[in-house]
């Protein structure tokens, strides 16, 4: 790909992480359907619609790699299904290293369990990177947030105007991730790429999304996802 200062032409690749065990769901949640497509197909489709020319790496569980290669690779140009790792952060690193081996300098990392992410929000967070090292899609906190003590008694009320909940995609420069990996103990677990980069002193910009972007974790979540995704099944 050409390298320039425009969002469309930078050496950018997409990494979709989809190697989780779906323990809280009870079965492979990524193979559950929304309309006529699986959850993972919808997630991949959203990323492809947003970033039409970006190489796309999907990291899945080893036991499901052939299944997902059969489902995804014939339908999506520029997509490669690879075996992920035991933890989410392991799958991210494997996917990023695969993309970097093909020349990617910026990676857009998305959870396969967020099938309704809107392409406009994906492009918003990519644009939000600017000259920085990382940017994440997030949501404003609408509920009142309380801090409690060990006995469950409210200590104070937190100003929610300065709070955000993290979502994906999260866009990072490969060099920033590599630097963070180099100084962190690999046994330490991070909930997302932003947490890893924060621990290394890297600034991460929050970009508030304009559309629903729920994460599928439990069977109850599927009711919400199918409703928002136009599936009454």
Strand and helix layout:
Blueprint: E1 12-18, E2 33-34, E3 37-38, H1 39-50, E4 56-60, H2 65-72, E5 79-83, H3 88-101, E6 106-111, H4 119-129, E7 134-140, E8 145-148, E9 154-158, E10 164-173, H5 174-183, H6 193-199, E11 205-208, H7 219-228
Parallel strand pairs: 1-4, 1-6, 4-5, 7-11
Antiparallel strand pairs: 2-3, 6-10, 7-10, 8-9
Helix pairs in contact: 1-4, 5-6
Q: Would you write up a description of this structure?
A:
The protein is α/β, with parallel strands linked by helices and 233 residues long. The chain has a single domain (12-228), classed as Spore Coat Polysaccharide Biosynthesis Protein SpsA, Chain A, CATH 3.90.550.10. The chain is built from seven helices and eleven strands. The longest helix is centred in the middle third of the chain and has 14 residues, at 88-101.
What is shown here, in short?
The protein has 233 residues and is α/β, with parallel strands linked by helices.
Structural class: alpha/beta
Strands side by side in the biggest sheet: 5-4-1-6-10-7-11
Helix content: 25-40%
CATH class descriptor name: Alpha Beta
**Major sheet: size, sense and barrel closure?**
7 strands, mixed
Count the DSSP helices: 7
Give the key terms.
7 helices, single chain, Spore Coat Polysaccharide Biosynthesis Protein SpsA, Chain A, 233 residues, alpha/beta, disordered N terminus, 11 strands, 7-stranded mixed sheet
């Amino acid at each position: 790909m050409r390298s320039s200062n425009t969002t469309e032409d930078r050496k950018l690749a997409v990494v979709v992480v989809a190697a989780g065990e779906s323990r809280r769901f009870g079965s492979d949640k990524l193979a559950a359907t929304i309309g006529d497509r699986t959850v993972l197909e919808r997630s991949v489709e959203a990323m492809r619609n947003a970033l039409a020319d970006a190489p796309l790496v999907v990291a899945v569980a080893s036991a499901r790699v052939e299944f997902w290669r059969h489902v995804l690779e014939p339908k999506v140009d520029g997509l490669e299904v690879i075996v992920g790792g035991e933890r989410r952060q392991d799958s991210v690193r494997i996917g990023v290293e695969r993309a970097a081996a093909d020349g990617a300098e910026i990676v857009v990392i998305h959870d396969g369990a967020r099938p309704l992410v809107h392409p406009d929000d994906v492009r918003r967070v990519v644009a939000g990177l600017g000259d920085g090292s990382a940017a994440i899609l997030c949501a404003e906190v609408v509920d009142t947030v309380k801090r409690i003590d060990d006995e469950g008694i409210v200590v104070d009320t937190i100003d929610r105007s300065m709070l955000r909940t993290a979502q994906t995609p999260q866009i990072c420069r490969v060099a920033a991730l590599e630097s963070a990996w180099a100084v962190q103990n690999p046994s330490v677990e991070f909930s997302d790429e932003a947490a890893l980069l924060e621990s290394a002193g890297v600034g991460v910009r929050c970009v508030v999304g304009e559309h629903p972007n729920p994460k599928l974790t439990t069977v109850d979540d599927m009711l919400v996802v199918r409703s928002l995704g136009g599936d009454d099944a």
